[in-house]
Design a protein that fits this description.
Helices cover about 40% and strands about 15% of the residues. The protein has 15 helices and 13 strands.
Amino acid sequence: MKILIVNTSEKTGGAALAANRLMDALNRNGVKAKMLVRDKETDKLTVVALRKSFVQRWRFLYERWCVFCHLHFSRNHLFDLDMANTGTDITKLPEFKEADVVHLHWVNQGMLSLADIQKILDARKPLVWTMHDIWPATALCHLTLGCPRFESRCMQCKYLPGGGSPHDLSSKIWKKKQKLYSRQNITFVACSKWLAGEAKRSKLLKDQKVVNIPNTIDTHIFKNGNKEEARRTESLPMDKRLVLFVAQRATNPNKGMAYLAEACRRLEQMRPETKTDTAIVILGGHAEDLAGEFSLPVYPLGYVSDTERMVRIYNAVDAFVLPSLSENLPNTIMEALACGVPCIGFQVGGIPEMIEHRKNGYVAKFKDAADLAEGLRWVLHEAPYATLSANAVSKVAAAYSQQTVAMKYIEVYNHAAAYIHFRL
């Protein structure tokens, strides 16, 4: 069986990492998988890039310009919405023609348009679509932030100026997706049980198959290592408890840094010695901008893309915290757990599926900085740390190993292919 995985980027972003790791897992478990991307970043032979051209750049800029216009030339929410009004017809590529199954992941920002997806369906190829956010089940948005309109029909979008109208852009794109999905067989895969539940509530997907398969991780790469050696290499202190925060853009409000800063202040009130025995390590773009948010020592390491260094940093710390306000199934928590690092996060999205409360970390009440502080205190000072660490590794081995996830996807591919053959 030959699988073509399609994603906008090869490595940038959580969806790209997940898609890349799935490709490796499939290739190690008897399936030939390639990845087709717009933005190739390595010399990996199993990753194929669209031909670079001015047109590719133009597609990205054109779609952003259209969104910008509908936002009345405001940058607010510019990257929260996608129209999928331009993209590349991949059906003429040899990689597409030789594929038995086409597997879409995150295909926005000029990679594929809705019309391009229709051409894939018209080619009668089995189509699987992994949802890394809710966009395939809504008109425009990647995060609904509590909006229930996608359950019936997107319109009067709150992201649009003035709250939109009954015939706004969201209503128009909704109708296009509705037409695309009608009488077509697409298998949608949600990475978390939470997202699968959200997708099934969407009127767009009411006649589509939605299953839950988590992302995977290579436990031969992400694993326990020597803490002292890791700290020495990264020039991190040996005499402090280190708490790690990771985000592609550390200043993204949705990642909850404000709650972490407040939790640390509360932790200092509970344990004044925290000021001298604990420090915060921040990974992500603009990490240095956040140092002033804490009275604790802060070690901003910037954006890190090197896998070997990421593993080393995980192994250098004592706890990982992700106080996000919305998450699907974050790769960072999976990576930390695989390295034996107890995790702390809010009870939102797929986080409670990964962090088992007081077993491999702590699940705090949503948007509750006081409970987040209690989680930090418990993990760092009270919990049986060695047991938490061992449970973290066991969780990943049982739920997210390459073989476990690959076998689930192979079953989905077989069902999708059998359905197409039956209809033909």
